[in-house]
Amino acid sequence: MQGWIDSLIRGWGQDPASWPWTQMIYLAFMGAAAFVVINFAAITAGIFSWAERRVAARMQSRVGPNRVGPFGFLQWVADAVKLLTKEDLVPAEADQFLFRIAPYFMMVGFCCVFVTLPFSHSLIVADMNIGIFFILAVTALIVVGIIMSGWSSNSKWSLFGAIRSAAQIISYEIPAGMALMIPVLLAGTLSTQGIIRAQGGWPWQWFVFDNPAAFVAFFIYFISALAEGNRTPFDLPEAESELVSGYNTEYSGMRFSYFFLVEWGNMWVMSALAATMFLGGWQIPGVSAAQLDAMTGGKAVVFELLSLGIFVFKTLFWVFVVMWLRWTLPRIRVDQMMNMCWKYLVPASFAGVIFVAGWMLLVHALPKVGTATHWILFLGAGVVPATLFVARVARNLRDTGDRFDFTSNW
Amino acid sequence: MTEARRAPESPTMEMTSNKEILRRIEYTGDMLLNMGPQHPSTHGVINFLVQTDGEVMKRAIPEVGYLHRSIEKIGEKCTYNGFMPYTDRVDYIAAMFANQGWAMVVERLIGAEVPKRAEYCRVIACELNRISSHLISVGTMAMDVGAVTPFPYALREREFINDLLEELCGARLTYNYLRIGGVAFDLPEGYGEKVITFLDHFEKILVEFGRLITYNEIFVQRLAGLAPIPREMAIDYCLVGPNLRASGVNFDVRKDEPYSIYPELQFDVPVGHGQMGALGDAWDRFWIRTEEMKQSCRILRQCIAQIPKGEVMGKVPRKIKPPEGVEAYSRIESARGDMQYYAVSGGTENAYRVKVRTGSFTAMGIIDALSRGLMIADLVALIASLDVVAPEIDR
Question: CA of B140: how far to CAs of A275, B146, B299, in Å?
């Protein structure tokens, strides 16, 4: 964004390097960007809260929210108003300061991610050259907030939830980070835009189908992201059947809503990151990034919106998958969660990084092997399982149906 | 409480009060976790005193009695017919069985005959209720393990059964359908076809339910080998019903002490054989309930096909007044296992003594022994797998 502001200042006939107001202009644009990002995060989280309830209702033969607005779409606004006007209760025995401050840590850790998260070809707050590293660093703030909330609540259930969460998030950051290193290796950059530019628009040009290790790394990343986002089957920190509500048991009102804002907003973060790192991000099939750069005028706007649409579609697809998993799977146990991380995901992700390093040498020597692998993986690991899955779902639907109305004329 | 008024502690006493256990836990420096009476997954108002120093529990002690309503005493204060609605409250998830137990014990007191059609009506109602009770059991168990969707799936099917039972007796939960000497209402017009329609649909849903949760890998991993109850232990702790059969003991009151028309019906008694982990583990207890639902479907189909025409109320005196000192005992296979009623006549219109013996209460006894070394998440699954219902524990 800095380059864009600089060109704006140059357009006003000033030299950004020597003009005294440059820093102020930067600050103003940063403030505006922060405002937009926080609102985007909050509104996305709100809409996801509605979407999740509708999806869950559909999966569970229920109706879901349908009173406020069309299809109950404004339910999240009503919920926000309700939560904001509720009493912000702090338990008498709680550590007042930590209890009050904990949700803000989570909010900060969550909103900072949006700084380097791309939305389209040129829509990104700051394309930092340490983008992925920054994202991994700031998400760690969330666990600080969770531990603070759990400890300061002075409730045994909250403490259990917080300790579980600390163990879980810190453990799963390792495989998540190592899995993300594979696209970084392939692209040769930590910048999120740079990683998207290194991929192509067509599925067989994505990093997920680049080599076997990258394919595995995508799933390692996805599983770890589920665990970091406290989503089923890793929702142990807030397992309501075991820990009442986990680390946020004692919270109410606005502070409570922060926790859930972060949880639902995290679905966007994990899915957008998956789309960025493995699934070609905003790349338009058939149009290369260089061609997009060269476009001007109305054509540029149209293709910019197209790239935004593609990115949002990929992200929302994975958001839906996350919801789908949540309403299908049971929860795993603490020891199984730890086993899975340390015995399987961590070694696999390390092995993957080493494999990819060697693979790159091989492909460098024999470029045809790389192209062949793209196609084999795309067809063998992408198209065939997807077709089988759709066929299986169709068969299940044919067997039992999904709408039961035989009692309507009883 | 002052020091002087406290009951003297005797070191030789085997049984210790919960208060004493609390004191001891605090002395060891472990954390005492009160799981309940208001906890999402204790299945009613039960408290578990959990001694733990982390995720692994050292011990969980069930504390019952929060839902005691003196049902047995009420039974001694009402007339024999008047107690029937109260029996619904013994186990409100499977109220039909409590009805049947009481009807049978009073029929034995006065030696009443029940018409054949009434027996068929009873079995139809009871088996429908067994399915609905097991649906609640497997649904809540899946929910306690963290899968939310099987629960509404199960409840959706249960609603269809509730519709059927509502049509039969006007109530959806506390039926009060059985009468001493028969049943309150005959089957409505076209009832058999409706039951068959439901069963055709439900048998497919059971397959889907298996795909959704029973054979789900995470679910099996969570429950296989969890808290296995060996054959001898199950008998020693007096487990009954599905919990007992999951441990490989082939005992079903419907087969071994046949009552009503069960000898005329063809059905199997599913027995756990530890196919996923150890014999009698939590997964076996889950699976045995899904299998029993299939058997109930079989029984229902036979009943609908075989039901004879005739009266639904036998000849029973208006005032039930058995001679003094007559005792009777009935034993039925409830959804939660062997349910037993014992009544002594006082020579008046009221019973002198009523005793109800239920499966959930005996199941609570084994939790302490099984809980040692389990994790907190497992305790929740263990409670759910035993299918305890708070009102049935305390009565």
Answer: 36, 10, 25
